[in-house]
C-alpha cells in the first residue's frame, strides 16, 4: 500500500523550516555544554565523575610506511632510532657458513625443518659470563641479526678492551655498567665501612645493566640473562622483552651432617642410660609413666612440625634451600637456581619486537625461514594427514610428521628426567589457552 504524501507546499507560508525537512540529514537540537565535575554542586565528594580508564596504547611505538608497494602496506617495525647505523666490530664477529645454515647436522641430514636461504650474516661474539671486573662504558647499541634483543658494545676503563653484551631496555650510549661476579671492589668496601651493609650494597650494585650473583640481587628485582650453573654464563631470559623476578633469597645453612648425626647418637645414648637407670631404681613404675608422657609430647611435637631430631632427608632439603634462590619466569614457572649463578639487572631490550609485522613473505625468507607446508596438503607417504581427495586427513587423530600424537596433552618426557629444581611448573596449553578458556 502506498504511503500518504504530506502536502508541504501549502504549509510553507506558516512554517519555513518544513522546506528543508525532507533533506536535512542531521538533528536540529542545539548542543548543550556538559556539566563537569568542577561545575557540579553535589555535596558528595566521594563520587568520581571522571571517565573510566582507557588503555594507553601510546607505549607501543611502531613505525608504519606509506604503501607505495604491497610489501609496505602492512609493514610495522619498532622505533629504534638509537641503534648504530654502521657495521659491527669485525674482531668480535665470525662468518656463519656451511650446511648448518640449512638446518643440517654434520651428516648432512635435516634436523631442523623450515630453515634455509637467508641473508649473509656474521655471528656476534656476545659475552654472557661477564667475568671481567671494573667499570665499562657503553660505546653504542647495535642490532644483532642472530637474536631478537639488541647488543651493547662495551669498552673497559681499565684495559680498554671491547666486548659485546646483551643490552637491557633503556640502556644508551655513555652509560657505565659493571660486573660484580669477581667480587666486591675495594672502593665499595670503603663506602660500606669495611662490613657488608645490605642497603648500601643494593643501592650501589643493583643498577640497570650490572651483572650480579643471585645472592646479591634484591628480592623483587627484574633480571634477565640468568645463569643455570655456577661458573657459567647466562642461559635464561635472553630474548627480546624477557625477564624473571627474584622471589626469595637463600635461607640459613644447616650445621654439617656429621654434627647433626653426632647429636642424634648422643641423644640415643643418653636415652639408653636413662632407661637402664630407671629399670634398676625402685621407682620404675613412676619412670615408666614419665617416659610414656614424654613419648606423647614428642609425638605431638612431630605432628605439629617441631621434630626434635632432624632426619637426613630434612637436612638435605634445608641445605638445598640455603644454596638456591627462587626465580619466577614469565611463563609462570617458579624454579630454584643456585645463588652463585649470574644475572643482569633489568629487562632484555627491544620489548616491542612481538608487535612487529613483516608485511610480506619475502622478509621471512631473508630471516632464513622457509615455508611451512600443512600435513593435509602432502601425500600419504610424507605425512600421516596426507592423501585422500580434498582437504581431509583420513579421520586420524592429529599427529606429527613422525606419527606421535600432536595434541590433547600427550606427554613425551620420561618420568626419570623430571626437573627437580622446578617448584611450580608452567601452565601447560593442552589446547585450552588457544580457545580462550583461561
UniProtKB/TrEMBL annotation:
- What species was this sequence derived from? Arthroderma gypseum (strain ATCC MYA-4604 / CBS 118893)
**What is the designated name of this protein?**
Large ribosomal subunit protein uL2m
Q: Which GO terms describe its biological process?
A: mitochondrial translation
Stored Gene3D superfamilies: 2.30.30.30, Nucleic acid-binding proteins, Ribosomal protein L2, domain 3
Q: Which InterPro entries match?
A: NA-bd_OB-fold (IPR012340), Rib_uL2_dom2 (IPR014722), Ribosomal_uL2 (IPR002171), Ribosomal_uL2_C (IPR022669), Ribosomal_uL2_CS (IPR022671), Ribosomal_uL2_dom3 (IPR014726), Ribosomal_uL2_RNA-bd_dom (IPR022666), Translation_prot_SH3-like_sf (IPR008991)
Check the record and name the Pfam families matching this protein.
Ribosomal_L2_C, Ribosomal_L2_N
Question: Where can this protein be found?
Answer: Mitochondrion
> For the Large ribosomal subunit protein uL2 RNA-binding domain, which residue ranges apply?
103-179
